[in-house]
Amino acid sequence: MSSKGCSFHITTCFAATVLLLLLSTFSCEAQLTPNYYDYACPQALSTIRAAVRAAIAKERRMAASLIRLHFHDCFVQGCDASLLLDDAPNIVSEKNAFQSFKSLRGFEVIDSVKSAVEEVCPGVVSCADILAVVARDSSEYVGGPTWTVKLGRRDSTTANKDLARANLPNATNDLDALVSIFARQGLSVKDMVALSGAHTIGLARCVSFRDHIYNDTDIDAGFASTRRWRCPSAGGDCNLAPLDLVTPYSFDNNYYKNLLQEKGLLHSDQVLFNGGATDDIVRVYSANQAAFYADFAAAMVKMGDICPLTGAAGEIRKVCRLVN
Ligand code: HEM
Ligand SMILES: *[C@@H]1O[C@H](CO)[C@@H](O)[C@H](O)[C@H]1NC(C)=O
Ligand SMILES: *[C@@H]1O[C@H](CO)[C@@H](O)[C@H](O)[C@H]1NC(C)=O
Predict the structure, then answer these.
(1) Which residues bind Ca(2+) 2 per the record (predicted)?
(2) Tens digit of pLDDT for each residue in 72-108?
(3) What is the sign of the dihedral through the CA atoms of 151, 54, 297 and 66?
(4) Rounded to the nearest whole angstrom, what is the distance from the C-alpha of residue 95 to the centroid of ligand 1?
(5) Is 267 a catalytic residue?
């Protein structure tokens, strides 16, 4: 009798586990396709591309800022544009998580891309898909790789600032922390090293790299002293420096070459080449830009697949900052 009760219990547990696994797989399964808007909005991709090109032509750093938005979106409840929601009675904006606050930029560009798309096809193209396409177009515009973007994501009606704090990496993370933060999103160590190569463009604030240039030992002495010039040990928190000191506005593999010379700007950059398990990947990318491009493109596609809302889930927002 006790064995019967026990086996019943085990069966129930097993069934419940299978159900949970199925549910979690289904709710996170990517069902995206590159031709999603071919009939509903054939002008979608060209409209987005034109608006992105105009924005980057005006300010080249914008390419960096826009690529970063897709990353900060996807790592928090999937690529669902939750990042774009502003504070509202039922929304605690992810924009205010410390990794993003006073740091993310380009939201006005996303607004203008969205209005351009709404003009040609109202209510059809999601903000989450716009972020994915904008990231690809930005990379391409500044000389980086291009790839085919899968589409069909829908927009969330929720945001989660606590999850943003928990899921987004920060500049003081060590290699182990970076590996586990990316693994939580289904991304491999190689994906993590390749995606970090986005730091071949764009700028960081003194507050993000002060610790590294004053206190770390895995940094070139001349480079550290140059960076201290505009980043004093107290004050000047918002002074900017390029993440790639050589070509901050071109997407290339200089980021990895810098790491070989201990000229990574962030602590979290230099840990990728610091006598650890990722040194070899950094060496490969520093010597072979084509390998970096191929792996970066593949990892961006993989990142874009993180838990999209599809089917009847979520909505197509009219304005990216607001739930309909
Ligand atoms: C590996 C973990 C990562 C950490 C710890 C990290 C951290 C940071 C930090 C601290 C900044 C400077 C922010 C500031 O001072 O305002 C930054 C900038 C940037 N990040 Fe990351 N990041 C990571 C991965 C990524 C990934 C995966 C991407 C995109 C695929 C990315 C794209 C960028 C870009 C392009 C910038 C420059 C933005 C601009 O100039 O506006 N980062 N990141
Ligand atoms: C950054 O992440 C580390 C974990 O690796 C954590 O200990 C630290 O508190 C975080 N930084 C901030 C400012 O919260
Ligand atoms: C360097 O480390 C010391 C001791 O951990 C700390 O008190 C100080 O604030 C750090 N300096 C900077 C500029 O981060």
Answers:
(1) 200, 244, 247, 252
(2) 999 999 999 999 999 999 999 999 999 999 999 999 9
(3) negative
(4) 14
(5) no
